[in-house]
Amino acid sequence: MRILVIGSGGREHALCWKIAQSPLVDKIFCTPGNGGIAQVAECVDIKSEDISGLLEFTKREKIDLTVIGPEATLSLGIVDEFLKYNLKIFGPNKAASMMEASKVFSKELMAKYNIPTANFKVFDNPDEAKKYIEENGAPCVVKADGLAAGKGVVVVKTIDEAKKAVSFIMEDRAFGDAGNKIIIEECLEGQEASILVITDSKEVVALASAQDHKRIFDNDLGPNTGGMGAYSPAAVVTPPLFKEILERIVYRTIDGLAKEGIDYRGVLYAGVMITKDGPKTLEFNVRFGDPETQAILPRLKSDLVEVMLAASEGKLSKVKNLSWDSRACVCVVLASKGYPGDYEKGKEIFGLDEAGRMKDVAVFHAGTQIKLINDVGQKQESEYLTSGGRVLGVCSLGENIKDAINYTYQAVDKISFEGMHYRKDIGSKA
Questions:
Q1: Which of 4, 213, 219, 343 is a plausible cystine mate for 63, CB 3.0–4.6 Å?
Q2: How many CB atoms lie within 10 A of CB 85?
Q3: What is the pTM of this model?
């Protein structure tokens, strides 16, 4: 098989790395890819949002299966376009992608089909939103309706902070049109968990649980990011609780979508808060999580390509239970100075080879590029430079979470670049 992976982050590197292990696969392309992905796939300079360019490339290169990484590509309707030409693609169509592209759509579907979630109210007027906050108080959560690269959720403790968040999203237009509408919802307390499943709209195959670390600083302080690290399995998700989450949240959601006439094929990712009243849905994503994927896929023993292909064809019933490594995996994200705000680029990265040689360690590139520094005869020398806010995801397996944490941070210690920042407490909640 010839596989195309769309995207350029750590999630896509982990997908390419796992896909390369499949005996079904002869060739992997990635658009646009990054410096690390180039180790396992041929990177092609087509932007993730260039649907017509991706379609033309897929037809020309006779791609057997296309795998979508970023939510923005899905929300543009790439799946619908590919299916017009009978091209196999893994990911939900445009209508199904509304589960992430519009938090209002998602919350209203949850309310309609009795899917546990926080109480909420929708606003399209900032003055009305601020009046509601004054009347109902804080803490609360203010969310931009549309896609905001994982940064459109603001958890606030005071009325003043909440009103500032409304202004930031709706009046300052921090996330553009994504802030035309907002949701204000109750602030749930508990531990978060990430539950990812693969579905063909009828059958569901669950992946291992994970826990993400969204805040930039240790002890969950500072602003939200795209994710500073993750570990799998999530200790808080016991087998009975996992079953409850699937029954009360995942299955109800897929059934609800079907009743709305929406055929959902791909990954459904539920961000769940484990509260004293049971699991409640924080949000849904319509693709593999980042960095959860980097912590989950090293534990997966089954052939991921086989599962994705079956889901895209509506034949997931043929896939038996997935096989998992009993060991834990921890992923620590190394970020550039300034992230999640304006960050530095072009810093040389040292120690990648040394870390990569460690047993059971994988270093997934998120924001890197290769610079050729010597091309004499047949000997090429190159260096890796930083090119993104999240630069690398350093992952390791261990007999338990504690061992995985230790091995991962030993690998982190071997890597350096100017301004490198990372959390020191990934996995400590377990």
A1: 4
A2: 9
A3: 0.94
Instruction: Give the residue among 66, 101, 107, 108 at the shortest CA–CA distance from 87.
Output: 66
Summarised one tens digit per residue, pLDDT across range 2-37 is 999 999 999 999 999 999 999 999 999 999 999 999
DSSP letter, residue 394: E
Among 176, 114, 120, residue whose Cα is nearest residue 144: 176
5: helix, coil or strand? strand
Check: CB of residue 74 under 8 Å from CB of residue 91.
yes
181 vs 124, 176, 340, CA distance in Å?
A: 4, 11, 23
Residue in 192, 179, 185 with CA at minimum distance from that of residue 140: 185
Integer Cα distance of 413 and 40 in angstroms: 25
Tokens read off for 33:
């890819």
Task: Return all residues near 389 (Cβ < 8 A) that are at least 6 apart.
Answer: 225, 226, 335, 336, 338, 339, 340, 343, 367
CB 184 within 8 A of CB 159: no
Question: Cβ–Cβ contacts within 10 Å for residue 177, how many?
Answer: 11
With b for 16 or more beta-carbon neighbours within 10 A and e for fewer, the 89-123 pattern comes to bbbbbbbbbbbbbbbbbbbebbeeeebbbbebebb
Q: Beta partners for 232?
A: 329
